[in-house]
Write a structure and sequence with these properties.
Order of helices and strands: EHEEHEHEHEEHEEHEEHEHHHH
CATH class of one domain: Alpha Beta
CATH superfamily of one domain: NAD(P)-binding Rossmann-like Domain
Largest sheet: 7 strands, parallel
CATH topology of one domain: Rossmann fold
Strand content: 15-25%
Distance between the termini: 52 Å
Radius of gyration: 19 Å
Strand order of the largest sheet: 3-2-1-4-5-6-10
Number of helices: 11
Shape: globular
Number of strands: 12
Helix content: 40-55%
Structural class: alpha/beta
C-alpha cells in the first residue's frame, strides 16, 4: 500500500507558508504544520493538516516536529523591517534554522526546501536583474532581516557541504496575493494605497510575484530541484511607480504623482521609528531599513527556475488584483 508523503511546513500560519501547505495538500501530500502555542491559525482554517506545537527557538520541539516526516518545507522566518530586538530575530532566523537542519539530518529527512529570500541575492550596479550567480556585496546587508537571512543561508550551505544536507534553496521575491493576514510590508503598502493614504512615494524597483506561484515553485523545487542549488521564485520587475499605477487602475482612481527622493524621506523614517519605539510600539509604515533599501532596485530573473523546474509565474497585475480582492473581502479597507 502506497502512503502519501508527510511534509512538515514551518511558518504555515503565515502568508507564504499557508500557500505552500495548500499547494502540498492539493498535490496529495499529508501536511504537518509547526505553530507556536499562541499562533493565529486563521490561515489554516478548513485545511486538513496535522498540527505540531513548537517554536524555532525551542529546539526540542523541532526534533518532535520532524519525527516521521519525509520532507521539510522550512518557510518560517521573522520578517520585519523594524526590529526593536534584533537578538530575537537572530535566534529565530539563524539559530532556529540551523537547529531544524540538524534535526532533519538526525531524522534522515529525504529532502528539504529551505525558503530564503532575494535579499540574499546579489544586485547589479546598473540595476539590471540579478540572478543566482550575481556576486553579493556584503555592504548590501542593510537591516536585521537581511543580515539574519543571509547568515541562515550560509549555515544551510555549510551543512550541505559538510553533511550532505539534502536541501534545495528557493528565493521568493515580493509575494503578493490572498492570505496576507498580518499583512507583510508590501501588503501594508497595498492596503494603504487602496485607502488613499499614499499621496507620495519613494520610487524604487521590486519583483512582484503571486504568492500561489511561489507555492508552486516550492513543490517544483522538491520534485525537480538539485540539492545545494538556489532558485529565484519571482515574476515581473516593476518600479514602485508602476505598482502604484496598476493598483490605481484596478481601483479606478488616479495614482500618486509625487515622487520623493530617499534622502528627503530618511529623516522622516527615523522620526517614525522613534515614535514607534516610544509610543505606539508597532511597526511604522515608513522604516529606516525600507528607505535605505529603496535606493537600489530589487530586480531579479527567475530564468533558472523556469528552465530547470518548469516554473511558470503569472503577470504581476493578477497578484495585485487577487490581493485587493482578498483585502476587500476581509475588511482591511475599513
Amino acid at each position: 500500500m502506497v502512503t502519501e508523503p508527510l511534509s512538515l511546513v514551518t511558518g504555515a500560519t503565515g502568508f507564504v507558508g499557508a500557500a505552500v501547505a495548500r499547494r502540498l495538500l492539493a498535490a496529495g501530500h499529508r501536511v504537518r504544520t509547526l505553530a507556536r502555542p499562541n499562533a493565529d491559525l486563521s490561515n489554516l482554517q478548513n485545511l486538513d493538516v496535522e498540527q505540531a506545537t513548537g517554536d524555532l527557538i525551542d529546539h526540542a520541539s523541532l526534533r518532535d516536529a520532524v519525527r516521521g516526516c519525509d520532507y521539510i518545507f522550512h518557510v518560517a522566518a521573522d520578517y520585519r523591517l523594524w526590529v526593536p530586538d534584533p537578538a530575537h530575530m537572530h535566534a529565530v532566523n539563524v539559530e532556529g534554522t540551523e537547529a531544524l537542519m540538524h534535526a532533519a539530518l538526525e531524522e534522515g529527512i529525504k529532502r528539504i526546501v529551505y525558503t530564503s529570500t532575494v535579499a540574499t541575492i546579489g544586485l547589479h550596479p546598473d540595476g539590471s536583474p540579478g540572478d543566482e550567480t550575481t556576486a553579493f556585496n556584503p555592504k548590501d546587508l542593510i537591516g536585521a532581516y537581511k543580515q539574519t537571512k543571509y547568515a541562515a543561508e550560509q549555515r544551510v550551505k555549510e551543512l550541505f557541504t559538510s553533511h550532505q544536507l539534502p536541501v534545495v534553496i528557493v528565493h521568493p521575491s515580493t509575494p503578493v496575493g490572498p492570505g496576507d493576514i498580518k499583512p507583510t510590508p508590501t501588503g501594508r503598502l497595498i492596503v494603504e494605497a487602496a485607502r488613499g493614504k499614499v499621496p507620495a512615494f519613494v520610487d524604487t524597483g521590486l519583483n512582484v510575484v503571486h504568492v500561489n506561484d511561489v507555492a508552486d515553485g516550492h513543490l517544483l523545487a522538491l520534485e525537480h530541484g538539485r540539492c545545494g542549488r538556489r532558485y529565484i521564485l519571482g515574476s515581473e520587475n516593476l518600479s514602485l511607480r508602476q505598482v502604484l499605477t496598476q493598483l490605481a487602475e484596478l481601483l479606478n482612481r488616479k495614482p500618486p504623482a509625487v515622487r520623493l527622493p530617499p534622502n528627503l524621506v530618511l529623516p522622516l523614517a527615523y522620526i517614525s521609528e522613534a515614535l514607534a519605539n516610544l509610543i505606539t510600539h508597532r511597526e511604522p509604515l515608513m522604516t529606516v531599513t525600507g528607505v535605505k533599501l529603496s535606493r537600489k532596485p530589487m530586480f531579479f530573473s527567475s530564468q533558472r527556475a523556469i528552465d530547470e523546474l518548469g516554473y511558470r509565474p503569472r503577470p504581476a497585475v493578477d497578484a495585485l488584483r487577487d490581493a485587493l480582492d482578498w483585502y476587500r473581502q476581509h475588511g482591511y479597507f475599513g
